[in-house]
Amino acid sequence: MHLNPYGEDAVNLAADLANRRPADAEELADRCRAAGLVLEGPAAPEDVARTTEALDAWEKIVDATDDHERADLLNAMLATASAYPRMTNHAASGWHLHYRDERQPLATVLISVISVGTALHLAGRGMHRLRRCTVTECTTIFADTSRTGRQRYCSQRCANRDAVRRHRARTTV
Q1: Rounded mean pLDDT, 58-79
Q2: Whole-model pTM?
């Protein structure tokens, strides 16, 4: 049973692809499969180019300075990406909703998955739960899936680095 194939997994895939852009179609397809996306056909070089453009637009959503700007940017992405929801049981993986037409190129699928997944994540968890790491020299994007909604760092490593920096700043004064 698929409860929400467009939520947390989709926004985490978007963050992964945005943080480390795929070099070619094979890498894009491999990373999508690793994230659990069922591919309907082979990836093509055009998929990489279109996915890169979509990730550039998605990063503007991440970097939006307020909720209204974030919603406007996301709504524009949704308008170009989604179709009427439909029930599907492709690959005999269980019935679930798709917000896209069938038999689309990988880039079209990704744009739909990323935009709808981001919308569901932000609407369900809070508009502030998509951001970049707080550490100044780190630009990593992450989706805050913490219970409290107060995640500030992309990883434990960055959290520790910042804690050490703050500690040293206090002790040298």
Answers
A1: 96
A2: 0.85
